[in-house]
Design a protein that fits this description.
heterodimer; A: Sodium/glucose cotransporter; 21 helices; disordered N terminus; B: two-stranded antiparallel sheet; 2 strands; 4% strand; elongated
């Protein structure tokens, strides 16, 4: 049975798959080049001149957020583990309330380019900017590595590449494409790519959802039943006994794995408002009110999309079945493309894969530009050169950073190739929630908060989170680890959030209270007044 | 709202001016209004979300109770999270448009200064 399946996993026609994909990439590149003609100064390059409207920016945020993790990762997790995969959707969505209620508008009012602008506003510039830039790079790298793993799996499936070395070559090509995007387009270019891609991705998912539901006569309950039946008949090891309609198929075994679920849930809900590339999107609109409108649009689109992933995940389980998904070149991450093939043949497979690929490319570009902007603006211009650099020079440095970051991301992507993308992105969320969120919240809402609190919280959160990841089962000690041959696993949870996030919040309080530094009352007042009223950032209307 | 042609001030406000604005009753009211909405609502959705995740981790049997066909309590509670997220978003936007924007605008105009 397994041999037959393995031979039958090749889907579609590699030539058609790649033709549709290439056409798509060329179209988006042309748009980037056209949009970039107006790219002149640093404000344009980094924040698109604050020129996007709320709805446009909201679609772009959805584009940034709906990465390979949301499409390939969640659909795969639901198809294989059922209900436990649904938690990703819910955590990823509810997290937007933290961004909407606590962060988006105040941040828009206070900052200019990057997250560090806000964090260092009333604290000591140099050390805080350095810490913020460091954590921005760390979050972006974890996020990038996940996208690379997704790209590897997808192309492996499309081109029927089973060889790991050939997959690595593909990852390197994706990396190159992404660098071209960033070098040519800047933020305005990537914003247009995000908008186009978000529309295509959401429309594609909606269309597939309709086809799936039509197969079951519009009866969702019946689809769930078929999904459970397919799982019960599965021959892959350990799959058949799963109850995919109830929680617990992935995280139900031991107390450790139940705590792992809590840890994941915490990282998901607190991560979004600490993601630097999402925070940077709040600066591409002119006012706080537009920032609010963007988030509302983003929540509506992202929420709708996650409802579709529920149908896609269970649909893939019911129509494709866990056996074929698990034995295909991309593993779990192939559930959505395989479902597209079953529903609409080679054409739908080609289109959906192209959209998924463009998704990865665009997210990667958005991440790279955020991280490189942060380095150029916060580390190079402010810390190393003390503001004596021209904006042209900043843009140049950010381009060099993008190339460097691209290279590192390619290397890590090759290591992470094969793991579930949603799981990998959740690690980036854990880093963001540990290193960034406490300091963002404290600096916006706690007047007493000071530099030592910020540094303890950011470095404490960042270091504890990364150390725990390194010693977790995600990196070594299990068959699916990044280094399957090694075993230096010391920490039982695969997501460290439940330890590192509370630790970072506590360190922020501890650091603040043990330092006598109460800050500059005038700067504190300025930040509070600016963040709440938007004075300085918004044009006053005169009556 | 009639617009007059007063140019925005060239010189940014001083620290003392910011302190004065911060201490003003109008600003304190804006701050109180914001916090009075945002903090309780945040507490509510975080508790509701945590209860859901805790049930997902520890109450498998409860979540597996079938309500209609194959649709169980877990699925309904999960969709409930979607519903409350949309609901809170709507409530916040209404609140911010009505309660926050006019107050913030009044203070901005009082200071009438713009950087960009």
């Amino acid at each position: 049975m397994n041999r037959v399946l393995a031979a039958g996993t090749q889907v579609g026609n590699p030539v058609i798959n790649i033709s549709i994909f290439a056409a798509f990439v060329i179209v988006t590149l042309v748009i980037v080049i056209r949009a970039s003609r107006t790219n002149t100064d640093a404000t344009e390059f980094f924040t698109a001149g604050h020129a996007f409207s709320g709805p446009q920016n909201g679609v772009a945020i959805a584009g940034d957020y709906l990465s390979a993790a949301s499409f390939l990762g969640i659909a795969g997790a639901i198809a294989v583990y059922g209900y436990d995969g649904f938690l990703y959707s819910i955590g990823f969505l509810v997290a937007w309330l933290v961004a909407l209620l606590l962060v988006a508008e105040l941040l828009r009012n206070t900052g200019k380019f990057t997250m560090a602008d806000v964090l260092s506003f009333r604290l000591k510039q140099k050390p805080v900017r350095l810490a913020a830039a460091t954590s921005t790079m760390a979050v972006s790298l974890f996020y990038l590595l996940a996208q690379m793993a997704g790209a590897g799996g997808l192309v492996a499936l499309l081109l029927d590449i089973n060889d790991r070395f050939a997959q690595s070559v593909v990852i390197a090509v994706v990396g190159l494409l992404m660098i071209v995007y960033v070098l040519v387009g800047g933020m305005k270019g990537t914003t247009w790519v995000q908008i186009i891609k978000a529309v295509l991705l959401i429309a594609g998912a909606a269309f597939m959802t309709l086809l799936v539901l039509a197969k079951f006569g519009g009866n969702f309950s019946e689809m769930l039943g078929s999904a459970q039946e397919m799982v019960r008949d599965a021959t892959a090891v350990g799959v058949a006994e799963r109850d995919v309609l109830a929680p617990g198929a992935q995280y139900g075994g031991s107390t450790t794995s139940k705590i792992n679920l809590l840890s994941l849930g915490l990282a998901l809900v607190l991560g979004t408002a600490g993601l630097p590339h999402v925070l940077m999107r709040f600066y591409t609109v002119p006012t706080a009110k537009e920032a609010r409108r963007s988030v509302v649009w983003a929540i509506a689109l992202i929420g709708a999309f996650y409802l579709f992933t529920l149908a896609l995940g269970y649909g893939a389980a019911a129509i494709v079945g866990p056996d074929r998904i698990l034995s295909s070149p991309g593993g779990q991450n192939s559930a959505a493309p395989l479902l597209a093939f079953e529903l609409g043949g080679v054409l739908l497979l080609g289109i959906i894969s192209a959209v998924a690929f463009a998704t990865i490319l665009a997210v990667v570009a958005g991440l790279t530009i955020t991280a490189s902007a942060s380095f150029a603006h916060d580390v190079y211009a402010t810390v190393m050169k003390k503001h004596t650099v021209t904006e042209d020079e900043q843009v140049r440095v950010s381009r060099i950073t993008a190339v460097t970051l691209g290279a590192v991301a390619i290397a890590l992507g090759i290591l992470a190739n094969g793991q579930n993308v949603a799981f990998l992105v959740a690690l980036a969320f854990a880093v963001a929630a540990s290193a960034n969120l406490p300091t963002i919240i404290y600096s916006l809402y706690w007047r007493r908060f000071n530099t030592r609190g910020a540094l303890w919280s950011m470095y404490g959160g960042l270091i504890s989170c990364i150390v725990l990841i390194v010693f977790s089962p995600a990196v070594s000690g299990s068959k699916t680890s990044m280094l399957p041959g090694a075993d230096f696993q010391l920490f039982p949870l695969s997501n460290p959030g439940i330890v590192s996030i509370p630790l970072a919040f506590a360190l922020g309080i501890l650091g603040t209270l043990t330092s006598r530094d109460t800050g500059d009352p005038e700067l504190n007042a300025e930040m509070q007044v600016r963040s709440l009223t938007g004075v300085g950032a918004e044009k006053a209307t005169h009556h | 709202m009639a617009t007059t042609d007063v140019e925005p001030r060239e010189v940014p406000p001083t620290g003392a001016q910011y302190l004065a604005v911060q201490a003003s009753p109008e600003f304190q009211e804006l701050r109180r209004t914001l916090r009075r909405f945002v903090f309780p609502v945040t507490a509510f959705f975080l508790i509701w979300y945590s209860s859901y995740v805790l049930l997902g981790a520890f109450a498998h049997d409860f979540m597996d109770n079938k309500v209609w066909g194959n649709i169980n309590v877990g699925l309904i509670l999960g969709l409930g999270q979607f519903l409350t997220t949309f609901l809170i978003t709507g409530l916040y936007v209404r609140f911010a448009n009505r309660e926050l924007d006019p107050r913030a605008e009044a203070i901005r105009n009082e200071m009438h200064w713009s950087e960009r």
